[in-house]
Design brief:
Shape: globular
Structural class: alpha/beta
Number of helices: 31
Helix content: 25-40%
Strand order of the largest sheet: 8-7-3-1-11-12-13
Largest sheet: 7 strands, mixed
């Protein structure tokens, strides 16, 4: 009866989805599929016909409980234990071949290593196409081979030759594309996968409906009808495609609308999207495109204009004038030639596409995604070693660039020490394409369910033992414990906890659940500046080690294999000279870095797609993170902070104390991962103190793409990153490149809400809030807010430290609302009063998926995002604005209800201990 209810519930859900224009939701539960199988076996069952369709076409593969039931039933059909008219044994083998691992591999091995020779050979033929095998699977093959099993030998020989790859169809020589301009200017992933729809990301069809607008979706459909032999290329005209986030859901949506179905038996999983951008593709987004076997193109269709004498032509603002090299207007028919690696309009060659079709990227396209190549190489290596033969040369060799007599940048040093499978003794430089060991992995809560899906699809069940530590956050859903969060988060936490990841929100009721911002926790648990970190968020930018924001799939791959594959990026060196003014905050230095860089290089963003090696030797990890975090907005691939020995030791001691608190809360697991991190930190501190291995520095003769020197002396006013929402040039709105001094606003621009929070603030910022409130009360007799001020500490540890030091009492005194973990909000706040709100640790307004400012507001925030609709949405009458500034500017703006003038600002911060920075007393090389 219970099973029947499960099936009936599913049918009712189907009817509800039909009303929304949606197909049935894919099945992942064992109980539902068990009932469906029962109904298939019962030939008189009235639900049998639908049940067969659900079984064949609507069951999720991999390690889902439903996949296990499906694989077992297919095995029964193959062995003749059950007869199903619609599913012959041959078709059963085909269905197993599309299930991608997990129980399906176990079944195929059972059959291949069984006694029925005919069935064994058929099973072996299917196994030869599979790559998602783990130790338990390969161990069975090795044991059988050692016992003289000829089928096992045949499978291993096929694996050694990588026939799972070589027998795939070659990439088409010519690909016809139809251009479609999704937007003018930078396209953030919010356009492709809005933050406020984060709850639906694991429901791929439903989430797909939020990409762009319904009108644009219809236009894409119309082009597909008009050009059935072509692919749609989604374009960011006069901008960069996919800035701002690592969302796999963004690429999934693009693939859903413009790609091709990965398998006829796996619903709503599409691959091979084609995307382009005038200024290329965001590095993180491009990685995600590779995951899906897609193509990313740097169109370069707008170039700087020069006069007859070769001089750069500038407009009246002093900005370089751009001219169109060729048109990509919506509906233009272009041809990609993958052999010549060129883009054509008819016979006219437009640009070279060598970077889009490197040997490695061509392999990803051929295999339908990078995972298949990564796992395939591991299977080939295993097979060759088991057979005792050299690994046959099938895949493109790792690109190993070495330069005699040239020093190494910091990132080159980190990649060399963590490289896997490279030529022994070879020193690698930027441009080399390598596999590397991943030390720390982070998963965040609005992409975590997708990471779990990816782990299930690649049949992974336990974290790789080579990973030093992994953390699953709860920060993106921290501010509101609504029905969506209540449905999704406990399920996610249990999955990740079972997988071996340290979880923030407790799945077992043992410890007080945390909603700490993921980046701040990863910054603490990274205890080696030689580490490589992969995290499911673009702001995975630690100030120790080198951290790469990644899509949910790459996070899954790192968790499952302990590895990542990527080229060693070029670096840009950033150093500082001069002295900060007493009334300036380090956040102003961060903004000024971007402004001065653009000025020095005539508007060219030399940071884009590269590593920013920033020499912040005197700043502790917490404060230095403010810079490395912002490098995501600078469009850099990652950032490395070069630190002095004594500073690094102090940062590691702070990290140790915070990890210890996590242990005391009961967060460590049976592998004692957190204790292991403390032990590693102690070892690293000892190495530095003894001079055995000083803090990481580049070589003095390292080569950089560019070197930028930031002059602290010229930073005379607080700096604000402005979305410039009314710029006549649409492409220049909502970029992070418009950096303005506070005097630009004349002291009269209205501010509707202030926000101090997200990953860009540290403990010192919360102390600044406290000190400013006391300061202003002493100066004015009272503190009156003319606009709401929302304050969200990054972590509970920081709140505990503020309580111990007396600052939290001050914040409580001036606040009109203080969070309670015992009574979390069940609905997002829609209206704000002119007072201070002390919110729960987490992302809060920055994420845009729960709390929002009122539509049309002008928000002054410490956050990172100024994208349209993220923190604040538009009204018909007024565009919402998210201006980004330092903590003291935000606090004063909320109190005044407007942007202050410079004199008001100086008076308000007098005597306050702002976040200060002084260049290192010696060159850090």
């Amino acid at each position: 009866m219970a099973f029947e209810n499960i099936y009936n519930d599913y049918i009712n859900e189907i009817e509800e989805r039909k009303a929304q224009g949606l197909h049935p939701k894919p099945i992942d539960g064992a109980e539902l599929l068990s009932q469906i199988i029962t109904q298939i076996i019962d030939v008189d069952n009235p639900n049998r016909k639908d049940s067969v369709k659900f079984f064949i076409y609507n069951t999720l593969p991999g390690t889902t409980p439903a996949a296990a039931e499906k694989a077992k039933f297919l095995k029964q059909i193959i062995l003749g234990e059950v007869v199903v008219e619609e599913i012959t044994p041959a078709f059963a083998f085909e269905l197993l071949s599309h299930m991608k691992g997990g129980k399906s591999i176990e079944v195929l091995l059972d059959l291949a290593l069984g006694y029925n020779v005919a069935i064994a050979k058929e099973a072996a033929n299917v196994l030869k196409t599979q790559v998602f095998l783990y130790e338990a699977d390969t161990h069975r093959l090795k044991v059988a081979y050692d016992d003289g099993n000829t089928i096992a030998k045949e499978i291993l020989e096929s694996y050694a030759q990588a026939e799972f790859f070589t027998k795939l169809p070659d990439v088409a020589e010519e690909i016809k594309v139809i251009t479609y301009i999704a937007a003018e200017g930078d396209i953030s992933t919010d356009l492709l996968s809005p933050g406020n729809q984060a709850h639906s990301r694991s429901d791929r069809e439903l989430h797909g409906l939020c990409m762009m607008t319904p009108q644009q979706q219809q236009e894409i459909k119309d082009f597909q009808m008009q050009f059935p032999d072509a692919s749609i290329m989604l374009i960011a005209e006069k901008g960069t495609m996919g800035v701002g986030s690592s969302r796999m859901s963004g690429v999934n949506n693009v693939a859903l609308w413009t790609g091709k179905q990965a398998s006829p038996y796996i619903p709503f999983v599409n691959i091979a999207p084609i995307v382009g951008g005038t200024n290329g593709i965001s590095p993180i987004f491009l990685t995600t495109v590779d995951v899906t076997g897609g193509i990313g193109i740097d169109l370069k269709n707008w170039v700087k204009k020069h006069d007859a004498d070769g001089n750069l032509v500038r407009n009246d603002k002093g900005e370089p004038v751009l001219e169109e090299a060729y048109s990509v207007a919506t509906g233009t028919v272009l041809t990609i030639n993958t052999k010549k690696k060129k883009l054509y309009n008819g016979d006219q060659e437009l640009i070279d596409l060598s970077k889009s079709f490197t040997p490695q990227k061509l392999e990803f396209i051929k295999a339908g995604g990078s995972y298949a190549v990564v796992f395939g190489k591991k299977i080939q290596t295993f097979a060759a070693q088991t057979l005792g033969i050299d690994i046959p040369s099938v895949f493109a060799p790792a690109k190993e660039i070495t330069i005699e007599g040239q020093g190494l940048t910091a990132v080159e040093k980190i990649f060399n020490i963590n490289a896997v499978g490279v030529t022994p003794g070879k020193v690698l430089y930027a441009g080399s394409d390598v596999r590397v060991k991943v030390n720390i992995v982070g998963s965040q809560d609005t992409t975590g369910l997708m990471t779990a899906q990816e782990l299930e699809s690649m049949a992974a069940t336990v974290i790789s033992p080579s990973v030093d530590g992994a953390y699953q956050s709860g920060c993106h859903t921290a501010s509101v414990w609504d029905k969506k969060a209540q449905a999704n988060i406990p399920k996610l936490m249990k999955f990740m906890n079972d997988f071996g990841v340290i979880t923030a929100r407790d799945p077992k009721g043992v410890y007080h659940s945390m909603t700490d911002v993921i980046h701040k926790v990863l910054n603490d648990i990274t205890i080696d500046e030689w580490a490589i970190i992969i995290g499911g968020d673009s702001h995975t930018r630690m100030s120790k080690g080198v951290a790469f924001g990644a899509d949910s799939g790459t996070v899954a791959l790192a968790l499952a294999t302990g590895e990542a594959s990527m080229p060693i990026p070029e670096s840009v060196k950033v150093t500082f000279k001069g002295e900060m003014k007493d009334y300036m905050d380090f956040r102003d230095v961060v903004h000024a870095t971007q402004a001065q860089m653009l000025q020095q290089f005539d508007g060219e963003n030399v940071f884009q797609g590269r590593i920013i090696e920033v020499h912040l030797g005197t700043l502790l990890a917490d404060q230095a993170f403010t810079f490395t975090d912002w490098t995501a907005e600078m469009k850099a691939k990652a950032s490395i902070c070069i630190s002095q020995d004594d500073t690094l030791i102090e940062s590691l001691e702070i990290a140790k104390s915070r990890i210890q608190i996590m242990i005391e809360k009961g967060m460590d697991n049976h592998n004692q991962v957190l204790q292991g991190l403390i032990d590693k930190a102690n070892k690293r501190i000892s190495e530095i103190q003894l001079g055995v291995k000083p803090a990481l520095t580049p070589d003095g003769n390292a080569k950089y793409y560019a070197e930028v020197v930031i002059d602290l002396d010229v930073i005379a006013e607080p700096m604000i990153a402005d979305p410039d929402v009314n710029n006549d040039d649409v492409s220049k709105r909502y970029t992070h490149d418009t950096i303005r001094a506070i005097s630009y606003y004349g002291g009269d621009k209205k501010v509707d809400l202030g926000f101090v929070g997200s990953c860009m603030v540290h403990k010192g910022d919360l102390k600044i809030v406290s000190q400013m409130l006391k300061n202003l009360e002493e100066q004015q007799g009272e503190v009156k807010f003319n606009a709401p001020l929302v304050v969200a500490a990054p972590t509970y540890n920081i709140i505990d430290e503020l309580k111990a030091e007396g600052d939290w009492d001050v914040l409580q005194k001036y606040s009109g609302f203080e969070f309670s973990d015992l009574l979390p909000k069940s609905a997002a706040r829609t209206e704000y009063n002119n007072m201070m709100y002390l919110e729960r640790p987490g992302c809060n307004l920055c994420m845009g998926n729960q709390e929002k400012a009122a539509k049309g507001d002008t928000v002054m925030a410490t956050s990172t995002r100024l994208f349209q609709g993220r923190v604040v949405e538009d009204t018909e009458a007024k565009k919402g604005e998210s201006l980004l500034a330092s903590t003291p500017v935000v606090v004063l703006s909320a109190i005044l209800g407007r942007i202050p003038n410079i004199n008001e600002y100086k008076a308000a911060v007098e005597g306050i201990n702002l976040t200060k920075f002084s260049p290192a007393y010696k060159q850090l090389v």
